[in-house]
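Hey, weird one. I pasted the Formyl-CoA transferase sequence into the form twice and got a warning about non-standard characters only the second time. First submission, copied straight from the form history:
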Amino acid sequence: MSTHRLPLSGVRVLELGNYIAAPTAGRMLADFGAEVIKVERPGTGDELRNWRLKAGDTSMLYRTINRNKKSVVLDLRSDEGREAVLELVRRSDILLENFRPGTLEKWGLGPDVLEEANPDLVFVRISAFGQTGPMSSRPGFAAVAEGYSGFRELVGDPDRPPVRVGISIGDSIAGMQAAFGAVMMLFDRQRQKIAGAAEAVVGSAHSFEGKGPLSERTVDVALNEAMFSVMESLVPDYSAFGEVRTRTGGRMEGIAPSNGYLCAGGKSVVIAGNGDGIFPRLMTAIDRSDLAEDADLQTNAGRWQRRDELDEAIGEWCAERSVEDVVEALEEVGVPAGPIYTAEDLVADEQLAARGMIQNLDVSTGEEVLEDVAFPGITPVIGGESIAIDHLGPDLGEHTDDVLSWLGLSPDQGAAPESDQDSSED
C-alpha cells in the first residue's frame, strides 16, 4: 500500500467529538497525515465504544471510525480539564466538536475564549440543525435530521412507511463536509498569510488584518443541511413544477430500467440499463428485441411510464441465471451491471484488494487480540493504492500521559472520575 508523504502531515487537530459525525471528520484528516488528538470523557469515553459491541469493551465500529488518532481522557467540566483543552487549542490548527450548540460556551470554551488562546484556529462545529436559527438548540441524531432533510421520505417502497438505510449516512456525509470545511479554511488561512507577507514585502499601504472574529469564520455543519445538500433537484422540481417526489423502492425517479433483480441462488444484481444507447443492448441480451425496437421506449420518459413491464421482463430473465452469469452476459454487450455484495463478498473482492481497500490488522476487543481482521481502506486513493492504516482506534486514554506530559501538565490533569458531561449530538 502507498507509503508516500501524506498531505496533512504537520497539521494538528483537536477532536472533541462523540459518536460518528465529528469523529468521521477527524478520521478523514488523520487518514491523510494530520495528528488527531481525540478527547474522551473519563470512565466511558466515546459512546461509540459500546455500539455494536460483540465482545470485550471496544467495538469494531469505534476501532474503524477512530483509526489513526490519539485518545486523551479529560473531564471538560473541570477547571483542570478546561485548562488542558485550552493548552491543546494553543498548539492545534483545527478544533472539531459536535456538542449541542451552547455546550462549549457553558463550559467556558466558546469562540471568544478559543480565539484568545489561538487567533489562527480553524473551528469546525457539527450539530443537528446548526449554530443559529429557531431549531439550533434542539438535540438530534442523524435519523431525525434525515427526516427533516427530505431524504427519508424517498427511501423505501411507496406502499410502506419510509425506512432507514443500513448505515448512519447523515453522520457520515456531515463528517465529510466538516472535513472539507476544515481543509478549506486551513487553505484560506495559509493563502491569507502568504498574501499578507507579499504585501509586507512590496510595502503595500494596506496591512494584512486577518480574517475577522472566530465566530464569523466558524465552519458550521448541520446534519439536516448536509443531507439536504445531496437531495439533487428535489426542491427545484417542486418549486418550478409542483412535483412532489415519492418513494420508488429500488428505482430512481424518472430513470428506467435501473433496479435490483433477484437471481437464481438467492443473490441479487443491480442493472442500469437506462441510457438510450444501453437500453436496446440490454433488451437484446435478455431476448426481448420487441422491447428494444419499441418506439415508445427510446427515451427515459417513455421507459419510466412502462417501468413495471420492463422490470418484470428483466426479473424473469435474471431469475433463471446466477449473478455471475448475468454480470458476464451483460458485460459482454456493454450494459452496466454488478452483484449486490455482502460483507463476505467485499473481503474477497479482487478489485478492492488490488487497490488496498481491504486492510488486515490485528485488533484488541479489550479482552483478547483478534488476528488478521479486515478493515476498509483509506479513500480517496492517492498514487494508485490506498494509504496504509497506521493504527486502529486507540484504547481509552491510551495517549493521555504522553500528551499531558508534552503540554507540561501533570499526567492526571483533568482526568477526574467519570462525569456526567453532556453527550455529543450528531
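That's the output from the first submission. The warning seems to come from a hidden character in my clipboard, not from the data itself. The two ends are 33 Å apart (CA to CA).
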